[in-house]
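Write out the bound-state structure for magnesium ion.
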Amino acid sequence: MKILGIETSCDETAAAVVKDGIEICSSVVASQVKLHHRFGGVVPELASRKHIEAIAPVVDQALDEAGARPADIDAVAVTQGPGLVGALLVGFCFARAWAYARNIPWVGVNHLEGHLNSLFFCRPAPKFPFAALLASGGHTSIYLVHSHTRSECLGQTRDDAAGEAFDKVAKMLDLGYPGGAVISDLAGKGNPEKYRFPRAYLDREAFDFSFSGIKSAVKRHLETHGDWREHLADIAAGFEAAVVDVMADKLILAAKTHGCGHAAIVGGVAANACLRRKTADLAADNGIKLFVPDLALCGDNAAMIAAAGCHLLGAQSFCGRLDDDVYSRVRFIG
Ligand code: ATP
Ligand code: MG
Ligand code: FE
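---
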C-alpha cells in the first residue's frame, strides 16, 4: 500500500510517498525558514501564502522522486492539527481534493502522532509499550505508547515547549531564529559546568515539565554579566545541559516506572546531539534501549504523517469525510 503524506502545520511544506508504513520512497521538505527569519518567528499569514505556492510542486516532486504516478497511490494522509489553522488548511484541502478526485481514501493525522510514528522507520523499531519523549517547537510531553494509534500522555510542559525555550534563548543571545540548531552548535564548543542554570524537576516522581524558569534565569544572567558576549558558548552549553538533563531523567524514569525496556525521543529537539548522547548514556546505565529517528525525520516531514496515516487506515478502517475540519490545538492523542 502506497500512501502520499502531506504536512503543512507550520513553516514546512512537505510531501512524501511511503510504502506499507515503513519504507520511505521519497520525502520532500520545503522549508520557509528564510522567509520568516527576519521576523524572528513564523508569521502565520506569510506561511499560508507560501504553502499555497509550494504545495503542488512539492507533491509533484515527491511523486517523481518515488517513481510513482498518481494512479499508484492507494491513499492520502494529511496533518489535520495541531498547528496554524491557515497553514493546515492549505495541505488539508489539497489532500482531500486530491483524494476525492481520484476516488481513494484519505485520513487526517494528528501531527504529534506523526512525530511518534517517525520511530517506525528505525530498524529495528521499538516494541510496544515504550516510553517516548516528544520535544518540539510547540510541545514537550512524555507518552506511554501502546500502539501505532494509541498513546497515553504521562506528563507535559506547563509553560514553554523545549524547542520554544531554545528559540527564545537564541533570540536573547542575538543568534537569530530558529535557534535550536545554532545553540546546540555553539554549546558543543562551550563548558556546560561554567554556568549552572536551574533544573526544573517540579515533582521528581511526575512527568510534567517547566521551561519558563530557565529562560528567565538566562535573562537575569545576561543582565548581571555585562561581558556575556565573550562567553556565548559557555552560556549556550549551560542552558542546553539544564534543559537536556531534565528531559533525559524524566524519560528514563517513565520507562522504568512503566516497566518498558524501550524508550524513544521524537520531535525537532530530538535532533539535539547533547540530548541524544545523554539520554543514550542514561538509558544504557538502566538497561533500556533508546530509539531516535534519523536527523531528517526529527523536524517536520510528511513521511511520519504517511506512516501514522497508514496505521489509522489499516487498524481502524478510518477514512476522512468531506465535512471534516482542521484543529489548531491538541484535541486528543491516542
Ligand atoms: P510541534 O511539533 O510541537 O507542532 P513544530 O512542528 O514547529 O512544533 P518541530 O519542527 O518538530 O516543531 O521542531 C522545531 C523545533 O526544534 C524548534 O523549536 C527548533 O529550535 C528545535 N530544534 C531543531 N534542531 C534542534 C537542535 N539541534 N537542538 C535543539 N532544538 C532544536
Ligand atoms: Mg518548522
Ligand atoms: Fe512538529
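---
The chain has a mean pLDDT of 95.
The chain has two domains: 2-116+298-314, 125-292.
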